[in-house]
Amino acid sequence: MLTRADPGPAVVVCNSCRHSGDAQVDTGGVRGGARLVAALRDAKAADPRYAGIAVQEMACLFACQDFCTVHLRAPGKIAYVLGRFVAGDAAARAILDYAVHYAASEFGRVPFSLWPEGVKGHFITRTPPPGYVAE
Description:
Shape: globular
Low-confidence stretches: none
Structural class: alpha+beta
Mean pLDDT: 94
C-alpha cells in the first residue's frame, strides 16, 4: 500500500481529484488531479528554480470537498494541505513558488509577504512533523 518516495521537499498531488465540486472529469475524460500533476511537472521542467521540489502523486488525499488538492511536506517542517485549485499552469506555478520558499524556511513557516497570490485562500490544514507540535 505504501511506496517509498524521495523524503525531501515535495508537493504530493491527489491525482484522482475532481476539477470542481461538480465536475469530476473534463471533456477529455481527465480528472482535475491528473491535470494538476501534469501542469506541476511541466512547470518544474521549465524552470530550474523548482529543481529541489519533488512532484509526487497518489490517489485520493481524502479532501474531496476541496478538489485539486496537494500536500506540501519536508523533513522536520510543518506540512500543509492546500486545495480548491483550478488545474493549470497558473496554479502549478503558484504552488511551486510557495514550495520553494517553504523548502528554504527553517520550520515550514513562510512569511505571508512571500506567499504567491495563487495560494492565498487555498490552505486547508497544517500538521506538525512526527514528534513535534507547532507553537
